[in-house]
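Researcher: Please translate sequence to structure tokens.
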Amino acid sequence: MFTGIVEEMGTVRTAEDAREETRHLRVEAALASGCAIGGSVAVNGACLTVVSREGRTLGFDLGPETLRRTTLGDLRPGDRVNLERPLRLGGELGGHLVLGHVDGVGTITDVERDTAARVRIALPSADLESLVIPKGSVAVDGISLTVAEIGEMAFEVMLIPHTLAVTTLGQAAVGRRVNLEMDVLGKFVQRSLFLGGGLRPPSEPPPRRAPAKPALEQPVRTRSERGTP
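Model: Translation complete:
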């Protein structure tokens, strides 16, 4: 588990195809000395297992699911990546609870820069829309951010100068793809409501209602038919 507070930007040294639809990624970073083989590191928000360590360089294997659901397959030598080691029990939770399980890949559609920056991100699918709430938390490329505004199938975040300086979003540009992880608490609530029958999955169309049947006309009965004296 992570917090969305980036420790360091690493540099991709190699990104090569490996066996059976996998890629091998090597990232250079100072925090490598504190990582053990078999341990976990969040790379642009995706939880990866360290499979090798040589000096300041960590090696990761990217499987088919990771390549399909994240942007890590797009990385090339020289690219910068956000890195975070797992949260230690009793450690400071500076951002929000981040699992490192990417829910989808969003696309930056607008960037307004001044001292800070305002970034608009399009959601990849409707099933994530209900998990974005005003002033709620979202992890973008592993960075814990607060939702500043919500639009149709999109949301906006504000980036302070510090975030621009120490994360890859300092190079945010229109068209760039980013890993998104929605707030895990919201996902648990949505799932609980669905299993309890109080909510349908956002991607599922509402059930069709059967047309109401017209009321049957009752025949008018005379007093003699009713047996009234």
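Researcher: Any highlights?
Model: DSSP finds four helices and twelve strands in the chain.
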